[in-house]
Write a structure and sequence with these properties.
Elements: H1 2-10, H2 16-33, H3 37-59, H4 63-67, H5 75-81, H6 83-88, H7 97-116, H8 120-137, H9 144-156, H10 174-177, H11 200-221, H12 224-227, H13 231-236, H14 246-249, H15 253-268, H16 272-275, H17 278-298, H18 304-312, H19 318-328
Helix pairs in contact: 3-7, 3-18, 7-8, 8-9, 9-18, 17-18
Length: 330
Amino acid sequence: DYRMTSATQCRPAVSPRYAAVRESIRERARPHLGIDPRALGAFRVAVALFLLVDLLIYRLPAVRAFYTDEGVLPRSTLAETFPLLERASLHAISGSARAQTGLLAVAVVAAVCLLVGYRTRAATGLSLLLLASLYARNPYVINGGNSILAVFLFLSLFLPLDARYSLGSGRRGDSDARGDTDRRASDDRGDAPGLRVCSVGTAVALLTLVSVYAANAVSKYRSDAWVSGIAVPRIFQLGEFTVGVGPLVSEYTAVLTAVNWTWIALLSVSPFLVVATGRRRTALALAFVAAHLGMAATMRLAVFPFVMAAILLLFLPPGAWDRIEAVASR
């Protein structure tokens, strides 16, 4: 066929040398910027659960108060205060509770599809669209955790989240996986680089979280309260921000000062989340997870610490997931 022949002739040829160099770069980057497929699956499940909790427990009961014309921010006020957000939000099309509840129901269905891995990319895109629209409808009831969740939902569009633990994992053919995953390679450290998905998407996702931590570290060093060790004790003196065991530990200034310096130290070494491999990387990722869970147990931070802990799952290397699966199968 003439058209097929012409298309083939117009397609640029890739030299074997260039292909070899590209593959060499990919293999070198894989241990640092690749993600285990099991981590992608666990991350997808965690994000879907956060969406469901946020929609069903926090947003739905307050739909009339926060998202209708009868509530604290009617559409006329939104248009006057945030005209760009009003034009961008699907939730601003109607001010009735019925319409808002219907949009929340669609978002719940999309989150359930994301949870089970059915039409994962479409479910991710729809979840992102409706979540961003919901946040734009009332920007006063979101925090940093909500913003980070939206950012990583966008980045997830470029990741094979259905690689494991999903209804779609069985339909992923060899052609779809080629160039992303290799066969398992043995490694005496338990860190098999060939098992990871490695692409521009995985690199951007991992480096985005590291950049968040690095920027936070810079801000801490610019703060007199943080570099003098009194920031965390001061925070715990504000009763409205403490929950759970927070009021109990607020009396131990020395412990809180140690927490202050420990958090600065963790933020300072955050680039090693991508530099380190194997057990060192696992230990550092788990240290950040423990820190965020400690925040959740002591401070009123909504979904922020849980979202961060879910993202940190992406950093766990294959050896860690091998151990997790071994323990789970007992």
